[in-house]
Design brief:
The complex is a heterotrimer. By secondary structure, chain A is mainly alpha-helical. Chain A has one domain. Chain A is 71% helix and 0% strand. The radius of gyration of chain A is 21 Å and the shape is globular. Chain B folds into two domains: 152 residues, no CATH class; 194 residues. In chain B, strand 1 and strand 2 form a beta hairpin. Chain C is an all-alpha fold. Chain C has one domain. In chain C, helix 1 crosses helix 6 and helix 2 packs antiparallel against helix 7. The longest helix of chain C has 27 residues. Chain C is globular, with a radius of gyration of 18 Å. Chain C starts with 13 loop residues before the first helix and ends with a helix. Classes of the chains: A mainly alpha, B alpha+beta, C mainly alpha.
């Protein structure tokens, strides 16, 4: 007798899928309620966009790419996307939570100095940098995904990273005035400056200068 | 290779699990009359099943007998997650005889209650915590009325406690709140997002004549301006369409249960995805956006309808909500389109990425379709 | 009042925003920093090529070196005085429209950049969020610098050039006051 016609079926089907998804199913929640209440996908995107060292690196990378052959642009964007995606998955899978701040800062210094010097990088260097930086960005975000759907979180983060580089490149390539390159080089030096300070800060924390 | 395939499938399923959970809203109506406070709280049985466990014999359906056995627990759970206080002193909530009602074909437990407060006047404060510990995307839709004045609010984990001052709230505040509600609603509505995404991923492309370069029917559009216009056309068409059906549905002129609408949404995604690979729909993307937008609008109706707002308020709510949805879509476009634009020239993007994304969307939507048509709740894995 | 607080999406960055704001305000609320940074920009504009582009690019890096010392806690003797002197000197350079060879200009600016950087860097570990603080102050300093360059474009017109030199005089005088303060204290 089912007068209300309610149907909330929990069949044995479910358990098969639970088993399949068990490897990737999210752990119970604690993390930042604010991020979590916007859902996994947007949490991932916002997490990356508010990780200032990641954004700094991506902007520095875009500036560097801006001085290089524009045919490399797509490859770099794709590399950033893939690296963040894989990095986040790897972090989660390995259950690994390292402080990658120094590594991220070091990469900021590299792209920043290269950009300030207006170094015309080749596709291999650029792609390599994109992969390295993206992987670090993804790895750093992995632990923030606890309690959330990893797939959506990393997708959101990866798309955000790709979008950041895309926006920057669109802007850089659109500016045709003479002082454009100077502004980008100055921007790159600022990225390097931030990287240097963060690196020093992390060093002092680890080696106890303070 | 096989393991990679299994991994991909598992990922799609897991994503489906995490995102299939349709937006969870409860409707809290409170009336103040001559110092008395009465309320009515509509909570989806689907949500209560997660926290209280209603299907006692796990036979896949809930009988009235099973529900009646659990009313006490439902009341306990619900009213332990709601607090009302007046002028600093907390009010005692007295639940009355519960009922069941349907909104858009979904069953809701209706919990009427009365509140006894230490003082008959003063600022009313509501603390709402229902379901937040298991689902931070749950929202409480609050409607408060006193005399002829009606106010609304949307309760979230960040905004779980509201102090009510009915006199002070302006229409502008309320309108803004509905905008944010619409924004929230679409950004958490993964099925709607996926549909828009499927359309947007090919926004910087157009149909090439004679198969384009041979690997893909798509050819890049030149110029950011043209791409931006194309994107704007798609989004606006979608918004106008869903605004139309949303309004009609909320006004009661169309009444389709979500049993029908939800699978239809999944179908729209599947069709759009197939169209990315092989054209089966009208040429112009914005026509597609419009046509399918009509269906999506019906899905949104289930959010606003049960708030039981008076006509003017409803109009305000609808307007704000639709603006919010449009803003949400713009946000998604802001995330996706620039990247797609930069990649549009690459053969790999047109030949591999867009078909892969489309196939992924197709599979996900198929899962949802099956899940929704057969009400299997296959994907209610996430806790 | 039914709270105007919006749902989840607007909430996120309130903490981070505070850190960035704190960093951003650091050069702005220190009048000595502010005047010196803007003056570097103006002087660079007055000097023309190649300083006008070399300074904006080299300056942040040199400043970062000073900042690094500040962060790790290596003391730099006389930062206070150097910062005060920077205001005085740079104001004077602008007022006199002093032309210097690029290397000399870079040296002068460089010494001051190290001092300013050190001051910011010393403050950084005290900030709630070091990364946000750094980004904030770097962006602010960059913007001040850029503002100075834009103002410095006034140099193109004769009237503007005079106005600039007057500003330089003003800055130099304020610098005198700062030097007096830092020495007397």
């Amino acid at each position: 007798m089912n007068p209300w016609g309610l149907s909330v079926i929990r069949g044995k089907w479910r358990w098969l899928l639970v088993a399949a998804a068990a490897l990737i199913a999210p752990a119970p929640a604690e993390a930042h309620t604010a991020l979590k209440s916007m859902g996994s996908f947007w949490s991932g995107a916002v997490h990356l966009l508010t990780s200032l060292d990641q954004v700094g690196f991506l902007l520095g990378l875009a500036i560097l790419a801006g001085f290089a052959d524009r045919r490399n642009d797509a490859r770099i964007i794709a590399a950033s996307f893939a690296a963040v995606l894989l990095g986040a998955s790897a972090a989660w899978a390995a259950g690994w939570q390292a402080d990658l701040s120094m590594l991220a800062a070091a990469l900021m210094i590299v792209v920043g100095l290269a950009g300030a010097a207006q170094w015309r990088a080749g596709v291999l260097s650029l792609t390599g940098l994109a992969l390295a930086g993206g992987a670090i960005g993804g790895l750093a975000g992995g632990d923030a995904a606890t309690g959330l759907s990893l797939a959506l979180f990393s997708l959101g983060a990866a798309l955000a990273a790709a979008a950041t580089v895309s926006y920057a490149l669109i802007a850089i390539r659109a500016v045709k005035v003479g002082w454009g390159p100077i502004a980008w080089r100055a921007g790159a030096s600022w990225v390097a400056a931030i990287g240097m300070m963060i690196f020093a800060f992390d060093c002092s924390r680890y080696f106890g200068h303070r | 290779m096989l393991r990679l395939l299994v991994l991909c499938i598992a990922l799609i399923v897991e994503t489906g699990a995490a995102s299939a959970h349709l937006a969870s809203d409860s409707y809290l109506n409170i009336e103040l009359e001559n110092g008395r406070i009465v309320g009515r709280w509509d909570i989806a049985l689907r949500d209560l099943d997660v926290v209280v466990g209603l299907d006692a014999n796990a036979d896949g359906s809930i009988t009235w007998g099973e529900l009646r056995a659990k009313w006490r627990e439902i009341d306990d759970y619900a009213f332990n997650h709601l607090t009302l206080s007046r002028a600093g002193g907390s009010c005692l909530l007295r639940p009355a005889e519960p009922m069941v009602d349907y909104h858009a074909g979904n069953a809701y437990a209706v919990l009427p209650f009365a509140a006894e407060c230490p003082s008959a006047s003063g600022q009313l404060t509501i603390g709402y915590r229902l379901l937040f510990e298991v689902d931070p995307t749950h929202r409480g839709l609050l409607t408060i009325s006193e005399g002829g004045t009606v106010k609304t609010d949307i309760l979230t984990p960040e905004h779980a406690s509201v102090v009510l001052d009915l006199a002070a709230q302006t229409l502008a505040d309320e309108a803004v709140r509905f905008v944010l509600f619409g924004y929230d609603h679409i950004l958490l509505g993964y099925d709607h997002l996926l549909f828009v995404a499927v359309l947007l991923v090919v926004a910087p492309l157009r149909r090439g004549s004679g198969g384009g370069t041979g690997i893909s029917p798509w050819v890049p559009i030149d110029g950011l301006g043209r791409v931006a216009i194309e994107t704007a056309k798609i989004l606006t068409a979608f918004t106008i369409a869903h605004a139309i059906t949303l309004t009609l549905a909320v006004l009661g002129l169309i009444n389709l249960p979500s049993r029908l609408v939800d699978p239809a949404i999944a179908a729209t995604i599947m069709l759009a995805a197939i169209d990315n690979i092989r054209p089966i729909l009208p040429q112009l993307r914005w026509h597609v956006a419009f046509g399918f937008g009509l269906i999506h609008g019906l899905a949104f109706a289930s959010a606003l309808g049960p708030m039981r707002l008076p006509p003017f308020r409803l109009a305000l709510g609808l307007g704000g909500f639709n603006i919010g949805v449009e803003l949400g879509q713009i946000t998604l476009a802001a995330l996706l389109v620039p990247t797609a634009f930069m990649l549009r020239g690459e053969a790999a993007f047109r030949g591999i990425v867009t078909p892969a994304v489309s196939v992924g969307a197709l599979l996900l939507a198929l899962l949802w379709f099956v899940d929704r048509v057969f009400a299997l709740d296959l994907l209610a894995v996430a806790g | 009042m039914l709270g105007a607080a919006p749902p989840a999406f607007a909430h996120i960055t309130s903490d981070m925003g505070g850190g960035v704001a704190a960093g951003f305000l650091h050069p702005l609320t220190g009048f000595d920093h502010l005047l010196a940074m803007v003056s570097v920009g103006i002087w660079g504009a007055q000097l023309g090529l190649p300083s006008i582009w070399l300074l904006p690019i080299a300056f942040p890096l040199i400043m970062a070196i000073g900042a690094v010392f500040g962060v790790i806690g290596v003391p730099l003797p006389g930062t206070e005085i150097l910062i005060a002197l920077s205001v005085l000197t740079l104001g004077a350079m602008v007022a006199l429209k002093q032309r210097l060879p690029v290397a000399a200009a870079l040296l002068v600016v460089g010494i001051f950049a190290v001092a300013h950087g050190h001051a910011h860097g010393a403050e950084m570990p005290n900030a709630a969020d070091a990364l946000s603080f750094t980004v904030g102050f770097v962006v602010a300093t960059g913007l001040l610098h850029a503002t100075g360059i834009v103002i410095g474009l006034l140099d193109r017109s004769p009237g503007g050039a005079v106005a600039l030199r007057a500003c330089g005089l003003f800055v130099g005088l304020v610098g005198c006051y700062f030097v007096y303060e830092s020495v007397g204290a």
